[in-house]
Amino acid sequence: MEQDNDNTHTYVVLTKDTMVSHYQIVEKIGAGGMRKHQSE
Questions:
Q1: Are 19 and 26 in contact (CB under 8 A)?
Q2: How far apart are CA 17 and CA 25, in angstroms?
Q3: What is the pTM of this model?
Q4: First and final CA of the chain: distance in angstroms?
């Protein structure tokens, strides 16, 4: 039997008011990424 090498990925955009199971997306909580801290 051949091995299934399907590397397809599916991405879902979670926007405000999207339901995931019984959870509701109400707002964005972060923008990601890190920056270098500049001390004064």
A1: no
A2: 5
A3: 0.42
A4: 64
| Residue 24, strand partner residues | 19
Cα atoms in the 13 Å half-sphere on the side-chain side of 21: 1
User: 27 with 17: CB under 8 angstroms?
Assistant: no
Mean pLDDT by 10 residues, the chain (40 residues): 74 88 87 65
In angstroms, the CA 25 to CA 13 distance is 11
> Residue written as tokens 């509701």?
24
Task: Compute the distance between CA of residue 6 and CA of residue 33 in angstroms, rounded to an integer.
Answer: 30
